[in-house]
Amino acid sequence: MKSAVIVFPGSNCDRDMAVAIRDISGSAPAMVWHGESALPDGLDFIAIPGGFSYGDYLRSGAMAARSPVMRAVVDAAARGVAVLGVCNGFQVLTETGLLPGALMRNAGLNFVCRDVALSVENTQSVFTSNYRAGEQIVLPVAHHDGNYFADDATLDRLEGEGRVALRYAGGDANGRVNGSARDIAGLLNDAGNVLGLMPHPERAIEAAHGGSDGRRLFEGVFAGLSVAA
Amino acid sequence: MARRMTTATPVPPANSPAITPQIVAEHGLNEAEYARVLAALGREPNIVELGIFSVMWSEHCSYKSSRLHLKKLPTTGPQVICGPGENAGVVDIGAGPNGTKLAAIFKMESHNHPSYIEPYQGAATGVGGILRDVFTMGARPVANMNALRFGSPDHPKTRHLVAGVVHGIGGYGNCVGVPTVGGEVNFHPAYDGNILVNAMTVGIADQDKIFYSAASGIGNSIVYVGSKTGRDGIHGATMASADFAEDAEAKRPTVQVGDPFTEKLLIEACLELMATDAIVAIQDMGAAGLTSSSVEMASAGGVGIRLDMDAVPQRESGMTAYEMMLSESQERMLMVLKPGREAEAEAIFTKWELDFAVIGEVTDTGRMVLEHHGEVVCDIPLAPLADDAPLYDRPSMSAEDYKAWANVKPLGDIPESSDIGADLLKLMASPDIASRRWIWEQYDTQVGADTLQRPGGDAAVVRIHGTNRALAITTDCTPRYCYADPYEGGKQAIAEAYRNLSAVGAKPLATTNCLNFANPERPEIMAQLTGCLKGMSEACIALDMPIVSGNVSLYNESKATGGGSAILPTPAIGAIGVLEDIDTMATIAFKSAGQAIILIGHSAGQVGQSLWLRECHGREDGAPPPVDLAIEARHGDFVRDLVTRGLVNAVHDCSDGGALVAITEMALAGRQGAALDLPDVPNPAAILFGEDQARFVVATDDADAVMAAAKAAGIFVARIGTTGGAAITVSGSEIPLDDLRKAHESFFPALMGSDAALA
């Protein structure tokens, strides 16, 4: 299994993502700087980590989406390489156009960092094959701009195509986590090899984190990829 | 006096004003201090030189009112690698991955005045400044903490200030990717016109890769990296060294503007360069910017410095040398590089898209010489600038006179409680005890994926990356105790930090402090300062927690709120400890039903200065609970031993609100009630809500073993109840956990409302 983590100026979950990949897959990912125009050969898995690429200036993910390396990521995604964007990575994926819609400021306007319950809506993708359909899992979120938006026609189409991978479940006494349309927390592309996810699976890979539901995502991806390879 | 040789007077910069008494006064120097400037220089200063003396001799930079007393603090011990005097303190934390030896580098610092004037930027740049103090010494920052004090919740400015400060801390800390893992918040009318924002950063470095500030190597390049210099924050240090007058708002232009994105790049670039051996010395540009960083580097190294102001990266055109030297633009560092290493260093900073400029060199003159537009605009001998800084032994009241001045009423009759349940609900919802969830959910508490205890417990716990060991971190201070009795309050701040670290199973190691007091020119304020320091010193010695770094913030009082209102004396403590095995870590949450609840330590019903007396009876009376340091040490050791042996699985120290509040917090955290069975006492409220020190509540499956261990150690313990159910049952009251949780969670959302993000 050959993997890469993309690093932008202002990425800050890149090292956590690399630790998770290394611990679970047994091999360390290549750390690829945003200015590179090509990716290492033979990649099976690309992670776009969380953080504040370019300080979230202009719009979250907007400038990172125009980095040289993202052209190579778009090409890799088209070839079927698995691409996971977490938090700021999800924002980069929507800004790149690999995923539809946009992530707006949280409805409550505050940054929100807490554990959230999620329901697994699609278990057919390489990312979610390790979960049971309808299963509730818990992952941490930590974001200011996680309020997913797309127009109703797009949302209906995404739902119809089974592209909602994870949904915020239950919310809390204050209502919803961030105001996301249809409570969308994770979204697949139409081929199912690109996943954008606001929660952080790399922060839930061992008991010391307070839960390991995120580990199962990586285990599922790496098992699926090694079968395919 | 040979060193004070006079040289040719530098050319005054173009448009330089004449140095009139008014200009001297505007620079915060009194007549006697200006006379020292004249003596140090041997002539009249020009405006650039006056500005430099002004900031270096400000209270903020020179510690002129506190230096004499700070010298008495205990700062040494086998665990101390570097005590006060550098950018931050350095302590030995033992083994890291692959046989490395690690150090924790940490400090706490105030950003009080700017945060009152412009809460978002004030708090944000406070976080940025303390981060730089830590990574400038070679550490990767692994945790941020903060200690906040606001005015009364119903003061019209409080909501705006809380929102701005919390958003500022989050906005900066979240972006740089350092988890904000804990802290403390108090509300009191004494802070209505002068809030306190104290930020702490803890970093981890290899012991053989620690960087210091002393410049050396005549002819070595002095290099400027980071952001460009602008006109923001000019005279921030001088502002922080005076009371607020009625015109606090007018000082807004002296507040700096932070850019956490640049700070993140600066962290990564500095750590990348630090992995090489190119750096001789490095210092961040904090208060008083380029002036204090260059003067401190040269003074520490006993060398001279020559700077070319034309080479300083500038954000605006037409900046004068005066403006450049006094700017407090953020995210900047100054370095001395080894000869010939400039290109290598420049490549790293260019990669991270940061400015890099050689702006001068180390000289052997012992003088600071600045050139601008081809002319010498400043030529100051460095030794007098540092050595002749004013030092004041300010008059202080005796402890007796202070007591009379403070006018704390004696405790008198202790009221009885007719309804323990109602009192408990009131306390759980009170501003100083209520859940801080509204705040900490706005901080990224987990980036780094090593956070083992998030806010809400006794201490934050952050794993030492790649190991099975962890750092425990806490901030503590009980200002109402410090006001009523500065000496006991000073002891208590350290003792509570010691308990909080012990409660998670960590061995307390060392301390940083942030000494927030009012105007030191008032003898009663000096009595507070010296009293608190005396208590802190004794406690640090008794509990083996030397003070390795710190900061003093004086003049925390405001005329804006109606004349001379001093803050409560607030010597905020930050402390760290080491947890040797993360698998043994204790948390406050009750884990299961049917466990014995055991109270460690004597309960005499000390209700003086208690929150119960204040919140339920409207009285701020009595002496604070006395602190017996020998007992604190023994009880801490005992609890740590119970945790390490796995004999207890829930631990909480007793502090604000006393034992019943501690038990309720344990129950809420574990969603597991408690049935308490107290011995028959005349006034159970005093026992339940008294704030007697040196106490812990623990829960255990093996009560006999804990009782036996206590007996063997000669420590007083009492079995006071059993976990289980969905309520707290005590003294005839049964208070449902649901009601307690609602009370506990209600305060902040009610204060801040759903639209607080816009406040």
From TrEMBL, chain A:
Superkingdom of the source species: Bacteria
Pathway: Purine metabolism; IMP biosynthesis via de novo pathway; 5-amino-1-(5-phospho-D-ribosyl)imidazole from N(2)-formyl-N(1)-(5-phospho-D-ribosyl)glycinamide: step 1/2
Function: Part of the phosphoribosylformylglycinamidine synthase complex involved in the purines biosynthetic pathway. Catalyzes the ATP-dependent conversion of formylglycinamide ribonucleotide (FGAR) and glutamine to yield formylglycinamidine ribonucleotide (FGAM) and glutamate. The FGAM synthase complex is composed of three subunits. PurQ produces an ammonia molecule by converting glutamine to glutamate. PurL transfers the ammonia molecule to FGAR to form FGAM in an ATP-dependent manner.
Pfam families per record: GATase_5
GO biological process: 'de novo' IMP biosynthetic process
GO (cellular component) term, any one: cytoplasm
Positions annotated as active site in the UniProt record: C87 (nucleophile), H200, E202
InterPro entries in UniProt: Class_I_gatase-like, PRibForGlyAmidine_synth_PurQ
PANTHER family in alphabetical order: PHOSPHORIBOSYLFORMYLGLYCINAMIDINE SYNTHASE SUBUNIT PURQ
Substrates-to-products reaction catalysed: L-glutamine + H2O = L-glutamate + NH4(+); N(2)-formyl-N(1)-(5-phospho-beta-D-ribosyl)glycinamide + L-glutamine + ATP + H2O = 2-formamido-N(1)-(5-O-phospho-beta-D-ribosyl)acetamidine + L-glutamate + ADP + phosphate + H(+)
Enzyme nomenclature, EC number: 6.3.5.3, 3.5.1.2
Originating gene: purQ
Quaternary data: Part of the FGAM synthase complex composed of 1 PurL, 1 PurQ and 2 PurS subunits.
Keyword field: ATP-binding, Cytoplasm, Glutamine amidotransferase, Hydrolase, Ligase, Nucleotide-binding, Purine biosynthesis
Alphabetized SUPFAM superfamilies for the sequence: Class I glutamine amidotransferase-like (SSF52317)
Protein name, per record: Phosphoribosylformylglycinamidine synthase subunit PurQ
Lineage: Bacteria, Pseudomonadati, Pseudomonadota, Alphaproteobacteria, Sphingomonadales
UniProt cross-references to Gene3D superfamilies, sorted A to Z: 3.40.50.880
Stored HAMAP family: PurQ
Protein's cellular compartments: Cytoplasm
Single GO molecular function: phosphoribosylformylglycinamidine synthase activity
